[in-house]
Write a structure and sequence with these properties.
178 residues; alpha/beta; Pathogenesis-related Protein p14a; 5-stranded mixed β-sheet; 5 helices
Length: 178
């Protein structure tokens, strides 16, 4: 599993909107300028476009993985940490199975950014530039995904700019959750 913090810098005011990529609507918009649902869909679209470029099957959104991802993003923002394991030591696979996902294989990517560094395009670019994140995104055994984000910062003293925490949980279910 890999972690990468999107360190944001930029001026105050409205975050800059960049061009959407790979035909993924709202992928260049900071999530504060788009809805959380649109940002999640854009993130999934970008991930699947990259997987397709590499001849891999697309990932299917799984409700249980999404619940786990959203809850972890919210928890990191509320309790000001940025780690795969919670402060109590709860590991990603534990969080994922607690929501009812019976996993054969799981992985997780984290990112956070502020202002124009908080777009799905920016998260994807940084993940692809990181060996560990890239390995998770392009793992052929993963078949399902949950994308969750929180409009928050894991820092105890956030800068005041629009901040977003991303969690993507990847899985290959042992038992169908549907």
């Amino acid at each position: 599993m890999a972690i990468f913090a999107l360190s944001g810098c930029g001026g105050a005011g409205t975050p800059e909107v960049t061009a959407d990529q790979d035909g993924c609507a709202d992928s260049g918009r900071p999530p504060g300028a788009a809805t959380a649902t649109a940002a999640q869909a854009a993130t999934l679209c970008l991930i699947n476009a990259e997987r397709s470029r590499h001849g891999l099957s697309v990932l299917v959104a799984d409700p249980a993985l999404e619940v786990a991802a959203k809850a972890h993003s919210a928890d990191m923002g509320t309790r000001n940490y940025f780690e795969h394991d919670t402060p109590e030591g709860v590991k990603p696979w534990m969080r994922i199975t607690r929501v009812g996902y019976q996993a054969r294989l799981v992985g997780e990517n984290l990112a956070w950014g502020e202002a124009d560094k908080s777009t799905p395009v920016e998260a994807m670019r940084l993940w692809m530039d990181s060996d560990g994140h890239r390995a998770n995104l392009l793992e052929p055994r993963y078949t399902q995904i949950g994308v969750g984000l929180a409009f928050d910062s894991p820092e105890s003293q956030p800068s005041g700019r629009n901040a977003v925490i991303y969690t993507t949980t990847f899985g290959s279910a042992a038992v169908s959750t549907r």
